[in-house]
Amino acid sequence: MVFSVENETHKMVAAIQNGNITEQYECLLQVCENPVCTCNIVRLSFSPYGQKDEKSLISPYKVSIDFSQQILDYPDEEYLTEENRDFAELLIGGMDDDDFGFLWGEYYTIKSQFTVEASDDSIEARFDYREIEENGLLAAYDAVLPYDLSLWISINGENRLVLDQYCVLPDCTCTDTHLSIMIPGEYEDPGEELYFITLDYRKKKWGKLEGGTDSVDAKTVRSAVEEIPDLYNLLLHRHMRLRNIYFHCKSRHYTPSPQAHSPETGRNDP
Ligand SMILES: [Zn+2]
Ligand SMILES: [Zn+2]
Q1: Which letter, b or e, does each residue of 153-179 get, where b requires 16 or more Cβ atoms within 10 Å of its Cβ?
Q2: What is the CA radius of gyration of the chain?
Q3: 3-class DSSP assignment, residue 63
Q4: Consecutive sets of 10 residues in the chain, 270 residues long: mean pLDDT of each?
């Protein structure tokens, strides 16, 4: 593995094999600050480890990596020196799955922080406004805020992801959530649905389980989901945040389909 984090300094370091030599670098990692962008790209800069002599500072190598596709994001950028491009090739050539997983973890942590800090009115999430307004389509929390806390549970020893979906109509006061229990996929892929259950989180009233088996019935699923700390309050907060975000996005981006207007009065007034 190329990347590691030093125990004492918490510095991110890279050990890069160049021929017979292992070169050590200190790394800085950046990700785009948009909490809802799922570009899966990290920007890294590499300085020789422990470089202290300010005068002869070598400008750091810049490498941008798409960790989900495991490719360089800018192999052909013109502003990069050939040396920098060689470095990038050498780096990615030496990376293994654990390295890409490591970058994903760092990216996720930073994006989560951005998600927590972002105000509801600043988030530019994507919604299907017409389907929501006209057909009451629900919005999945993870689809709107992909880097917020995910809901994990364990059923018969297997890790499962819970996708909570809500009505986001600003004037509606319903307190229902639809819960899909998933076999998780990779990165932002929500995976495959195993079970489905509805819940009124205010009344703590659970609906019928779909997709249950002999070994997993409604009771199993309910008690697994109830293991999530402070579940009912958490769902309330997630619902409110989603509805707020929707309200702000809708006011910026959605114009209802034109409806028949009553004739304007006053048009013929002198
Ligand atoms: Zn991005
Ligand atoms: Zn509703």
Answers
A1: bebeeeebbbbbbbbbbeeeeebbbbb
A2: 25
A3: strand
A4: 94 94 95 94 93 68 94 79 91 96 96 96 95 95 93 96 96 96 84 95 97 93 97 98 97 81 50
Q: Which residues surround ligand 2, an ion (CB under 5 A)?
A: 167, 172, 174
- The number of the ligand nearest the C-alpha atom of 139 reads 2
User: What DSSP string describes 211-224?
Assistant: S--SS--HHHHHHH
Which bound ligand lies closest to the C-alpha atom of 73?
A: 1
CA angle 120/147/247 to nearest 5° reads 25
Distance 232 CA to ligand 2 centre (A): 17
DSSP H helical segments within 95-128, as ranges?
97-117
Give me ligand 2 centre to Cα 244, in Å.
Answer: 13
pLDDT of residue 270: 47
pLDDT at 75: 64
Distance CA 161, CA 139 (A): 16
CA 187, 193, 195, 196 torsion-angle sign: positive
Q: Are 3 and 28 in contact (CB under 8 A)?
A: no
